[in-house]
Structure formats: structure tokens, C-alpha cells
Amino acid sequence: MCDVEIIKLPYINSTNTYAKDNAQSFSKKITVIQAERQLQGRGRLGRDFLSDNSDGAWFSVAIKPEKNTISPQKVLLMPILAAGETAAAIEDIYGIKAGIKWPNDILINGKKVCGILCESRVVDNNVLLIVIGIGINVNQKAMHPDIEDIATSLFMETATQVSVDLLIQNICGNIVCSYDRMRRGNTDGIIDKWNEYSIMNNAVITYTKGQSLHSAVSKGIDRQGRLIAEQDGLTIYLDSSEISIKSTRSK
Ligand code: BTN
Questions:
Q1: Does ligand 1 have an atom closer than 6 angstroms to the CB of 207?
Q2: Is residue 129 lining ligand 1, measured as CB closer than 6 Å?
Q3: What is the pTM of this model?
Q4: What is the pLDDT of residue 244?
Q5: Consecutive H or E run containing 167
Q6: Which alpha helices (H) appear in 98-163, and where do they start and end?
Q7: What's the Cα-to-Cα distance from 156 to each of 45, 50, 166, rounded to whole Å?
Q8: pLDDT at position 212, please?
Q9: Residues of the chain where predicted confidence (pLDDT) is lower than 70
Q10: In the chain, what are the helix, strand and coil shares in percent, each to the nearest 5?
Q11: Domains of the chain (ranges, CATH numbers)
């Protein structure tokens, strides 16, 4: 990877929080912050993310774009980009095709191996900072009892031990290339890659919006990364910041 700084920490509350708090001092356009353990890993929608063990890949890619090189609209595609590139790296290294559950959970055999939390700082329509936080269960031999029904590790699914650093390097390399292509205008490649790994095509989904529960059939994502679904004969567009998918099953 060209011109990327890597900061390795033995432990930290959250690599995303570290990136946001320290971005001003990062001298490179791209900085990767990797922690052996996170004491207060953060997930989407304000949830906790269990990452207090040294068998996982817990890292954030912090990008400080040059002025006016990326629009805030394109930043909304970062979770989609990151999920596609992470799934592609997993396939390259392990030879298995993990599935993406919208917007950016990565699953194997129905259980989650990876979660992604993207955050950004935008001032006066200028994107100052993008933070892509990725957490992957890599070499764990068992999951914490609190999450064993819903989560798994790459080792548990493949019986293959892989270096966490190697996995992170591959994912970051993919993300840097794909980000560059996106900046130069190719957003279609990002959507196509996401769709290649998606488990959402024609799946029946149950989702909550506000307090209410709905059911719909998902049809993939649109060019803005929103989930397209059919509900009661109507096409609807779901935004990841306001809804939470409860279940997904093939039709
Ligand atoms: C989710 O599944 O809801 C998203 C989880 C994102 C976890 C990663 S681990 C590295 C980075 N630091 C954090 O605190 N969160 C992200």
C-alpha cells in the first residue's frame, strides 16, 4: 500500500474514536489504526461491539481527502464499498464466499463474522475525514456465550488460521484502490461488488422503522446504497441510518 501510515496499539477503547480524536495529527492522507484489543468497541446504531480479545482484526481506515475531491453523497457509499472489499479479501485468502447482509454485516452460514461502522466529518459540504471501522472475528476458537448464537469466526468456519495483519493488509489495499476508483467517478463497480456478495436478493426481510415492524422482499441496492424492497405491491427505499433489519431468509 502506498503512502499509508499504520498505527498499531496494544489496546484502546475504540479505533474509530481514536481516529476521530487524533486525525489532526495524522500526517498521511490514509492512516490505519489497528488495536490488538478494544475495550469499548462501538457498533452501528449505538450498539456495543465485543472486541476485547486479541484474536480478531479490529481496525479503522482514516482517510483525510484533499479538498473537494469527494462529495458527502459519495461518502454514503463507504459502508457498501468496505463490505464488498472485505468480502472479496476473505474470499481471496480463505477461498470461501461470505455473504453481505445489508448494509454491511458479513456472514458465514448465517452467523456474523464482521461488522463495519463508517463515520465522517463534513463541514460546509467539505468532507474532512472518513473513518471506516472494521471488526472481524478471525482466529477465535469459540465465541463469547453472549453472542455465540449469532456470531462466528473465520477460524471456526474454515479451520484455517490466518495472520490478522495479512488479512488487514489485504482489506486495506482493496479499500484504498476502490476508494480511488470511486473518487474518479466509478461508483458502479462498488454497487456491483456488493451485489456479488449480497445475501439479500429476493430475500424476505423483517425490519423495524421507529417502533413498528414491517415485512418486505429485498431487491438489491440502488446507486445511493439504499436497499430497494417491495412491500404491499410498492417499491420502497430503505435507508440504513433509520432502519434495522431483524431477519433475512431466502424466498
Ligand atoms: C456493527 O457490527 O454494528 C459494526 C461494528 C464495527 C466494529 C469496528 S471494530 C473497529 C472499529 N472500532 C469500533 O469501535 N468499531 C469499529
A1: no
A2: no
A3: 0.94
A4: 74
A5: helix 164-183
A6: 154-158
A7: 27, 17, 18
A8: 87
A9: 1-2, 242, 250-251
A10: 30, 40, 35
A11: 4-197 (3.30.930.10), 204-247 (2.30.30.100)
DSSP 8-state assignment for residue 115: E
Identity of residue 53: N
Residue of 98, 116, 115 lying closest to 107 (CA atoms): 98
Residues in the chain: 251
Helix (H, G, I), strand (E, B) or coil at 88: helix
**Mind listing the pLDDT tens digit for each residue in 201-228?**
899 999 888 888 999 999 999 988 899 9
Best residue among 8, 11, 13, 14 to mutate for probing ligand 1, ranked by most atoms within 8 Å of CB: 14
Residue 22: enclosing H or E segment and its boundaries? Answer: helix 15-22
From the alpha carbon of 114, which atom of ligand 1 is closest? 2
pLDDT score recorded for residue 78: 96
Residue 234, SS3 per DSSP: strand
- 44: Cβ below 6 Å to ligand 1? yes
Nearest CA to ligand 1 atom 16: 133
Is the distance from the beta carbon of residue 135 to the nearest atom of ligand 1 less than 6 Å? yes
Extract the C-alpha cell encoding 228. 430497494
